[in-house]
UniProtKB/TrEMBL annotation:
Catalyzes the reversible interconversion of serine and glycine with tetrahydrofolate (THF) serving as the one-carbon carrier. Also exhibits THF-independent aldolase activity toward beta-hydroxyamino acids, producing glycine and aldehydes, via a retro-aldol mechanism. This is Serine hydroxymethyltransferase. Homodimer. It comes from Halococcoides cellulosivorans. It comes from the Archaea. Its EC number is 2.1.2.1. The gene is glyA.
Length: 415
């Protein structure tokens, strides 16, 4: 079978893979958690490292033949330490959710208490939603954002912590447009003798580039995904002080996972290397500038931007004030039909279901990767507003679709 390429061995999968490449080139990826990894990252992921069992950690593996796996993992760790300034790094979690599982397993017992942000206010399933293992194993209560301002209600969080007495407070969110005050949350955690996990899954790249306050060295644990604002391929990461290093490492393996996905660890190493280059700071700054341009243009067009703007890579829109009869799903489908791919999202004070919520979430990491600046992003915001106002109007959809084609042709992602 070696020597035969994918299209010969498995034409059905080869076709789907090629179609996905075309889809990414031909549409605007505005799901805030998505990005486009470089060819180099994907090349590292598609290697013989996928064959290798490397249970354990560099220099102390359960299997022979791990010298190259060691090199790859050591480089990934070294680069992550340099990027985020962490004492200890574990690059083995298969995803951001697995990273959170690793931390919980390292320091919590079943039945311990977690205080985290409500999912409909921007939290994440792995912070203790009943559908996730964390919600089933731990006792979870949730804090909220202030529905008026859209900002985390830090005072209510402190009062809630006082009353609930959690073992772990989780910060870091999936649909929160504002800078998080990690220091303030750590102080709340310290006051009630709780540990604090700052889950920076969405903002890993912004934190690495210094365009968002860093929780590293502040929060007890920092977890993240490696495929969102940092373009290091799909995976997860945990950072902590040396005092928790052994507990975290044994919670990830053998606690929660088997052999590491060494091909993905290689992808992480390459993506981290790219993020250490000076251009990455410019990229991260542009991601935020682009999101601000979109928020601004949405407001010009009369849309209600949650919290009145953004400090990050994403903009959350509450459709209820401007378009009370239009749901997030209606807009999501209409936009998808014209090549703009974003997601319907719950908003603070949600009155609809999470399957058909009242908002949309728009992110700029992938648009910025393909070279969009503020002027292109303002135009995209206008196109989105056109569709929000007339999601069933064929003429509008036709016009927007043509313009999306021109923009994607002018800014290709992959050869
Ligand atoms: C995306 C995300 C994760 C992890 O997601 P994975 O798909 O498991 O990588 C964890 N926490 C937050 C806040 C997220 O947004």
């Amino acid at each position: 079978m070696n020597g035969q390429d994918l299209s010969t061995v498995d034409p059905e999968i080869a076709d789907a893979v090629a179609a996905e490449r075309d889809r990414q080139n031909d549409t605007l990826a505005m799901i805030a958690s998505e990005n486009h990894a470089s060819e180099a990252v994907m090349e590292a992921q598609g290697t013989t490292l996928t064959n290798k069992y490397a249970e354990g950690y560099p220099g102390s593996r359960y299997y022979a033949g791990c010298e190259n796996a060691d090199t790859v993992e050591e480089l990934a760790i070294e680069r992550a330490k340099e990027l985020w300034g962490a004492d200890h790094v574990n690059v083995q979690p298969h995803s951001g959710s697995q990273a959170n599982l690793g931390v919980y397993l390292a320091v919590l017992d079943p039945g311990d208490k977690i205080l985290s942000l409500d999912l409909t206010h921007g939290g994440h399933l792995s912070h203790g939603h009943p559908a996730n293992f964390a919600g089933q194993v731990y006792e979870v209560e949730q804090y909220e954002v202030d529905e008026e301002t859209g900002y985390v209600d830090y005072e209510a969080l402190a009062a809630h912590a006082e009353q609930f007495d959690p073992d772990m407070i989780v910060s870091g969110y999936s649909a929160y447009p504002r800078e998080v005050d990690f220091g303030r949350i750590q102080a709340v955690a310290d006051d009630v003798d709780a540990l604090h996990t700052a889950d920076i899954a969405h903002i890993t790249g912004l934190v690495a580039a210094g365009v968002h306050e860093s929780p590293v060295g502040v929060a007890d644990f920092v977890t993240g995904s490696t495929h969102k604002t940092i373009r290091a391929g799909r995976g997860g990461i945990i950072m902590c002080d040396e005092e928790y290093a052994d507990a975290v490492d044994s919670a990830v393996f053998p606690g929660a996972q088997g052999g590491p996905l060494m091909h993905n660890v290689a992808g992480k190493a390459v993506g981290f290397h790219e993020a250490l280059q000076p251009e990455f700071t410019e990229y991260a700054e542009q991601v935020v500038a682009n999101a601000k341009a979109i928020a601004d243009q949405f407001q010009e067009r009369g849309l209600e931007v949650v919290s009145g703007g953004t400090d990050t890579h994403l903009v959350l829109v509450d459709l209820r004030p401007s378009n009370p009869d239009t749901t997030g799903k209606t807009v999501e489908s209409a936009l998808e039909s014209v090549g703009i791919v974003l997601n319907a999202n719950t908003v603070p004070g949600e009155t609809r279901s999470s399957f058909n919520p009242s908002g949309i979430r728009a992110g700029t990491p992938a648009l910025t990767t393909r070279g969009f600046g503020e002027s292109e992003c303002r135009e995209v915001a206008d196109l989105i507003a056109d569709v929000v106002d007339a999601p069933e109007d064929d003429a509008t959809l036709e016009q927007v679709s043509e313009r999306v084609d021109e923009l994607t042709d002018a800014f290709p992602v992959y050869e």
